[in-house]
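Think of the structure tokens as a kind of shorthand, similar to the way a musician reads notation: each symbol stands for something richer, in this case the local conformation of the backbone. In the example below we present two proteins back to back. Begin with the first one, reading the sequence and then the tokens, and try to describe in your own words what changes along the chain.
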Amino acid sequence: MIATGVGRELLERDDSLSALSEVLATVRSEATGRLLWVGGEAGVGKTALLRRFCEMQDRPVRILWGACEPLLTPRPLGPFLDVAEDVRGQFGQLVADAARPHKVAAALLAELRGRRPTVLVLEDLHWADEATLDVLTLLAGRIGSAPALALASYRDDELDRVPALRLVLGELGRWPTRVKLEPLSVIAVAALADERGVDGADLHVRTGGNPFFVTEVLAAGGERLPETVRDAVRARSARLSPPARKLLEALAVVPGDVEPWLLRALGGELVDRLEECLGSGMLRESPTTIGFRHELARLAVEEAISADRRITLNAVALGALASRDDPDFARAAHHAEAAGDADGVLLWAPRAAERAAAAGAHREAAAQYERALRFTHERSTAGRGALLERRAEECALSAQIDEAISAQREAVICHRRCGDALREGDALRLLSRLLFTAHRFREGETAGLAAVQLLERLEAGHELAIAYCNIAQRRANDERLPEATAWAGRALELAQRLDDTEALVHALCDIGFLEAVAGEQRGRAKLESALQLAQQRGLEAHAARAFTSLVAAALRLRRFGEGDQYLEAGLQYCDERGLDTWRLYLLACRALLEVHRGRWDDAADAAELVMHDAHSVRSARSWALTALGLIRARRGDPEAATALEEAWRLAESSEELHLIGPNGAARAELSWLAGDHSGVVEATDEPLALAVDRGVPWIAGEMAYWRWRAGLRDQLPSQLVAEPYRLSIEGHWERAAELWCEIGCPYEEALALADADDEGVLRQAYDQLQALGARPAAAIVARRLRERGARGLPRGPRRTTRDNPAGLTARELEVLALVSDGLRNAEIARRLVVAEKTVDKHVSAILRKLDVQTRGEAAAQAVRRGLT
């Protein structure tokens, strides 16, 4: 077969097979697991490589194979359903039940830790659902404890359409390297083409060396490749007998592999033509399934089927799936839609959505609800309203806020048309919450108060308690303690009367946050109680909010140890459950925490993770941009103003001090560093007024501090100015520096020291700022020293940079060490918990500073200069 010839040539040319064999040998000898990517464009031969590699293994090696399918909405845990066919027991049951990713990953690891070495193939991850990617992420971090080689294949030419997979590729870095399959060379194509009397050079130009295209053209008798792959596939299928073509069409309506029972249902008496279809080279056969060799071929055949026959075949597939004892809801929904069966879609799509949501695949769940909604135009308005609300919830959990608002707004209209005041009021409350998240505060306030007014006319119940909580949360975010307390009090009283846990948790978070940021221990206790209750009752979004509130309160009070206590646990909790919105909030909190601690590389890395996620909500983006802008300002980067102004545009309409305060302080500092005192006043006017009005000493104190540095002394009550800032303003620089040191803020400590008149202390401040890389502030201190007659001040980069002759930063030295260890950028990104683009920038800077062209040369320089 030509396809086999192409596959063999590719394996021999690329040495990929040898690379996989070497890794497996290491796994077997050291009993230490590895996970490798196998990437390449569609049709390049990834499956051929993996199948050939598996065929080569001797009996002791167990082979487990799972593949993702090109369903419009992927099946949750799709490839692991295939693996579960061979692995029964607890793992099989968990996958069948669509259990949480962390449970599935744990069961899979337990299975892989058996005595036999295992090769686990996870194919076509560009079609993976969120739950599958979550399991893969967890597996990557722990596979070292199992004698297994996991091979994950994906199309690298489609990553722009698959942001979730791109994020996983960027964040996970424990894998040694990627196996990259390239298109065939001119020589390889010519060698194959010569056998059929085809011009190899021309064929290579027309196909780009893609093995699939080459195979299809040569299988069609060497004809010139038509404009689309579709035409090539149709030309090839036309050589089959009419019954064989009908069987091929029947198979083409099923994305992915076809099981024998489904094949019999679709093909009927045509099944006896299967051998002819297999002989065409368009299909591949495994011990348990039949499938197209390439998805592109399947699509080409499917599109050629007449509309009537395509509907009939999909209806047959739906009937066969529905008759199973444990039907696959996602596949059934796919075929119901393709068959135009509205009843079927409305039966299976919501079930598929529920299963996806239960597995943490919220984006897939939202898509399934959207599928159902396409078939409810002539249906019950009440039923459509319920579907809209479910879609809105899943969109919100997966950070698709605009889509969530659109769905929720329509749900309000549906309930109103039905005359269901209770559902209308609750839908208004949900709409209000979503509008608040999108910083559309006036609209959110109107909807929230309308919900309360409507629900108060009805018998008091859960909906009213949550509506009170919604307004209390808004007042808490505004830091209006009396109003928030009043609304939360209404909610607490009603929640206790109704024994309503969700309303109780919500109210505890509302009032607990305000008390916590005021430094009251009872506030932290309320948040911890809310967190515990939410986790016990499975209220995942509320638990994530409690984690975020605990971290944000610690950030406000500069209690970094408390922040660390909840930050990592919160990130893990959100990662495992697909709570993207809250995960991004926590990453933004991490960025600001690390800025205060002087860990500016770590802060920038966390902020860039937020910025690179297209679904980041406004608040998280504002925090991340503020962190980036502040770092750039302190390092003298001219791009600082751009980031801070963008952050201000996101924050200014909110009147929320947790957004306006940090941004105002950062813009004030940027102005002060530039000697622009009027800019300091302009940046702090609004935040200071709000902080004074709402009695927030840390933000009021920070605003007053920068205004004092600009020569403006505000007459504020001492209790409204946090102690470290008050001490500096009052001239007690030494005690202020001590407090900043105790808190763990080295930059602020250095600025306090810089207020001294003693040359020795000023030199200490200068050295500390240089060590941090704070060039503008160091220059200000240097001027003060020179005005006092000081000589011999060191110039140039910070101390950590001067300590190495290449002028590398501390983070660049860290990256260089990992490069020298042979790690690729994705692996380094995972190790350092940063975005892969960030590592790309560091590596480029390293190569430039070392004046080398390759990573190998950089590693050699590192050894020669003693840099690692």
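Once you have a description of the first chain, move to the second and do the same.
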Amino acid sequence: MSATAVAERPTRRAPNGGAPARRAVIRWALRLLRREWRQQLLILALITVAVGATVVASTVATDTPAPIAGVLGTAQDAASISGPPATINAAIARIERLYGRADVIENENVPIPGTLNTFDLRAQNPRGPFGGPLLSLVSGQYPAAANEIAVTGDVATDFHLSIGSSWTVAGRAWKVTGIVANPQSLLDEFALVIPGQVTNPSDATVLFDAPGTASAVQRATHLNFVSTAQTVANNNEINPETISVAAAVLGLLLIALVGIGGFTVLAQRRLRAIGMLAAQGATERNIRLVVRANGLATGVVGAVAGLVLGFLAWLAYRPQAENSAHHVMGVFQLPWTVIGISMVLAVAATYFAASRPAKAIARTPIVAALAGRPPALKKTRHLAVPVGLCFLVGAFLLLGSAGASGGNGNGMDEVVLGFVALAVAIVLLAPALLSVVAAAGKHAPIAVKLALRDLARYRARSGPALAAISLSTMIAVIICVASAARFGNVLDYAGPNLTSSQLIVYAPVGNIQPGQGNYPSPSGPTAAQLAAGVKTAQEIAADLGTTSMIALDTSDAGLQHASPGRSWSGQIYVATPQLLKAFGISQSEINPNADFLTMRPGLSTMSLMQLTYGNYSADNYGGRGGGGPNGLDQWPCPAGSCIANPPIQEISQLPSGTSAPNTVVTEHAISTLHLQSSVQPNGWLITVPGGLTPAQITTAQELAAAAPGNMSVETRNSIPSLAQIVDAATIFGLALALGILGLSVGLVRSEARRDLRTLAATGASGATRRAITAATAGALGLTGAVVGIVGGYVAALGFFRSNSLDTLSSLSSIPVTNLLVILVGMPLAATVLGWLLAGRDPSGQSRQPLE
């Protein structure tokens, strides 16, 4: 026998260590994450909060719009029919003949005495084939007999009803058998009866299944108001999921910008350990994997924690969200697509934030890494500036294209793309701006000069930080500027209707007959009802303990803006001597030639205003839909019924509420133009110096309800004022910017720690080191505020320049106070906090410990 020696084949190994090396590096990165979780707590918290906020915000945004079931129930089609009962019955019969099974819901509009509100007397079968989602039983039972009725909770409260009560409404006596609700619209106030008991319906909804499109059904049924799932979806002009994803992208972009500096500092803290890893044969790819794996793991942990936190917050907020949206929302009725995208973006954001320092650390020579020397700084690419300017111009054009759609939701894609382009422009231009800041401090004191120089030197940290501060400031500025432009529109006036101390008691309108809806009697109120109205208003004022009651007289004078766009809104009352005296306006303050007095700032100088009276109607001269006759851009003003550019005087003492007499016609105009004044006041404005209480409001409504002629009461609504909106936006922007700024200053100063030790060794005092930190914070805050304000106005100018409703002149209402708070207050606060929190430089070892 002979033996043959077989040579053993050498094992082929990957040049970079292959999968075993990658697993070892990833395990080491995860151990470091567990050990250094305190150092990464801020980034983890930012990711967690961002994902959690996205979960809650996107859920509220997508669930708040009325669901399709709120219109269709379980049917495929719904027809809304209004008109006389004969017309409604004929349309119902036609639908049943064409499509068979149908679910009919009939409504008769009934006013709630003493208020401007109404409720529906509704006939619906609780076990109908399609209307199940539109009806639910809260307590008691559904009506089953002709004399039984069930009411919603609000109707029961308004009329003090309970199960078993007897109630007379619509001329009939009923027995209340239960409390019901429309789960798809909790604001829906109605009283439910069995089918056939609404004898004078004002409208009806028919649910049915029909083949074909809505237009085909309209042609077959001769009805104009037919809804399908497609038409209901198209009515939601703004897609909440798109807005949620855009907000998530912007928020996570801010986190990525902040995270770049955080991962850079973490990578430099591990520099000597990474050098040891490279000395043992690790490739650049392995070293990059260390930092990237850390970022990836941080993103995964933060995304999962954010999902759990967001879901728990949604469970806690769901009852309030249902009250705000006025319909029931399911526990797991979440936009899982948006949530999944936000979690993926969170992981991608931290991976991107870790990738940039990973490349820099991987290129560090082994000897420099073992010595703990950070990698050399790279010069900023000059191409970033022209590319950033291109994105800035693109954002301006995209937002202008969105504004050209008139704000009707058709330009939402352009809005999203415009803001993304604007954010990219700020990110690209931020590092270059730091060079400008450093050059501006060339002749500053030494501490300030060093701080500004370090911002330019360490722009890998300070550049993304400046971009993040600028973006957070820009969000606040856009809200402030857009709100000021909307609330500053003197034509379509916006804001609260009254103050908390004001109440309007409206005069009687006459008896409302069954089947007439909420419209007054054509004959108007009787003389007895008018006399009772005056007495009731006096009783309400006496009950409120005030003698300040102003009669609100009206005339046939009107105002209009003689061009397309926003038109005049608001009631015009007569400037009676009593009204002028009540607001402290003397006759000597009034221009004797003025036709109108107003508190709306800017109305007196607005061109193309017209005073209309008599039988004037814009519809007779081209209408208000788009220019006058023959394509003219403004309405004609015929003599005898219209005066162009009437004299308007601004009087600041007049009240500012949209329902209050903020604009009045003078007695000079009434006598000169022979205007027709009302015989009876339209209402009475009552002012209570100490403010109205809920009990006083209830008593006033009850007194108005008891008066003949259907009187009503109006009190302050829930619309916020301009100051409330811009103040909330300013506080949000400042808080977010200062938080980002505090982290960024810490990162920049930690990287310049060696320079601080050198300064201390050469005799620099603690005040000098504090001044450096304070100057760093102040410079970042001031630059971020300037960039944010400029970016906000770029967005506003781009959008409003071509908007048909809010023209560019709307931006003349500048929120000066809030912009000054951002421009001056934020840098000042950052400087003070930087000085106070700088402290003494911690004593460190000359060599960094191995980890």
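Compare your description with these statements about the second chain. The chain has 24 helices and 21 strands.
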